[in-house]
Amino acid sequence: MLRRTNTASDLQSPGRLAELLGREAYLADEGLATAAFLALRMGRPLFLEGEAGVGKTELARTLAAVLDAPLIRLQCYEGLDGSQVLYDWDFARQLLHLKAAEASGVTDAARLEGEVYDRRFLIARPLLRAVETQPCVLLIDEIDRADVEFEAILLEVLSDFAISIPELGTVRAPTPPVVVLTSNRTREVHDALKRRCLYHWLEHPSFEREVAILMRRLPECSAVLAEQVAGAARRLREADLVKPPGIAETLDWTEALLTLGARELDPGLAAATLGALLKHREDHEVVLANGFPGAPRG
Amino acid sequence: MRPAADGPGLPDADDPGLPDAEDPGLPAGGGSGLPETAAGELVTVMTGFARTLRAAGVPADHERTQNLLRALSCLDASRPGDVYWAGRLTLCSSADDLPRYDRVFRAYFGGLRAGRARPGAVTLIRYASLAGESRDRGEGGEESPALAAGASAAEVLRHRDVAAMSAAELAEAHRMLALLRTVRERRESRRFRPARRGRLDPRRTIREALRRGGETARLRYREHRTKPRRVVLVVDVSGSMTPYADTLLRLAHAVVRSEPRATEVFSAGTRLTRLTAELRHRDPQAAMTAVSRAIPDWSGGTRLGEEIRRLLALGDARGATVVIASDGWERGDVSLLGAEMARLSRTAHRVIWVNPHKGHEGYQPLTGGMRAALPYVDDFVAGHSLAAFEELAGLLAGVRERPRRGRRLP
């Protein structure tokens, strides 16, 4: 039987969307559910900002699963340009075509140009793919890593979801794709881009939600272990660390503990698996010197 | 929802739980909403809310207000939770806006009077009096009434300690400083430009071939562009730096003006304050006025270790040339400063420490902070005179006398 696809219009309320996300093992709180709901309803990009590992990228993946739409991911880095994000021409094939034409004696420049700039020689990069694919979820990941020039390209595409290719014409999306932008806030993204988006600051989950997420994601995790892990994570986030653990790290850590057969958190196992939770030597030193926060106190 | 209506049981001003959607107090107050709010009234209420937010410093402009109304039409405007989230998602654009948004939301919909944005903590223009203090200590005969504009006078001024200058000399030094244009060391960008040799440029090769009727006679090439290396300047504005902080900030202004898109400036005292936007003013005086308003912690203590930690968390230092202008009088934990300097030296391209006292005869880096930081510093330079600033400008341009430090482990 075909799986029933959810479209934006099927989603009646943020609560309903949260429920659907929950079925895909993503437990969103009210704010995030409202943000995603409005992004779908209003056809606006969702700009998610927050510390690394709070579930920004995962939301885009889960939204794609809920909508049963392909996820198109664009990982940002410095120096991204149009030929890497919009489209590029397949130059090798174009050259081959020119050689073949030359061999068969075609020298009509206008005709050659028409042939060489044909759709079949065009390579669609993520943004063009997103405009052409209906429906889809476009994830523009870690936009703070890209440079200002890239933001300008993005601004143009996100304002009317159309890409103009001088040799071919304009490609326009009939309905705007679902767009999720994420940023770790290593730099401030330009306001012009932000104003086209819904802005949501994603916090670390609350203790109860983190316990629920751990148990939902890792069924073999006991309630006791989940509470101990979430409690340790909460205390570590309050401690003065270089990189406090996100939910991604606590999930990794719990998985590592489960792999070693832990039923409950004990200091020995915790120390052995600390590398899954904290990724800076300085943080290891702080934690090992002050006693592991997961260990029972008092 | 009606503004300033009968309190719908929203959390009070000190409740930090508001932004957390799991706060039971927020979405539960359905009874206080306005189920039959006329569309017109909703527009009035929300426009008023946006205006209040603007007064509090959140850039909730007209376009964003329109988005809020559009968002509310998809949600239930009678639920406080929906109004809260619709407003927060559409009107805010930075994590810094969120506390202000929460405060205004509570005030506007919770029956309290919304407060105006607090004016900057310091409105006093420090540098005028700052120069005066040191002038009094200046050597008696130095107060020359007619400061010759000749080259030799300028040359003398170049090597004078700014802390010992008279007001007129200082003004002249600042004028010269404003003229300082620094060239910036360049690094390879990932972008390309056409070149005579280098890598094949397929796009231009095809174009060229088409122009010649399909004959690929000439190959075109491209190479990486270069771009200016970013500079991050941290200027210590604590009490012990008072005679120099103003001039150093003017130097920062000159550096920002030379490469506005590749420079970030922070002041460091008891907290780290980003000053780049303030320093973009063309006029040095206007820039300095804006800066003195923006800095909340003039002449306090220094907690450099913590500030560098914050700087690293912001991410600006990665791959940049980091210049720290400080005398190294650390009030905080010196070992923390050492550890953070070690991290900084691994993250930054190069670390330059500017210490105004280094220009004085017989200077020894004896302060605890300076000793902790020095192993991780690539260039240790003076910062007391125009000539010293020119030397620093040379370093930013990539003129090297010494090779990069060997990586020392603590």
UniProtKB/TrEMBL annotation, chain A:
Domain AAA+ ATPase: 42-292
One Pfam family linked to the record: AAA_5
GO MF, any single term: ATP hydrolysis activity
Protein known as: MoxR-like ATPase
Automatic annotation (TrEMBL), chain B:
Name of the molecule in the record: VWA domain-containing protein
Comp. bias (Low complexity): 1-11
Biased composition (Acidic residues): 12-23
InterPro entries per UniProt: UCP010256, Uncharacterised_CoxE, vWFA_dom_sf
Region (Disordered): 1-36
Top-level taxon of origin: Bacteria
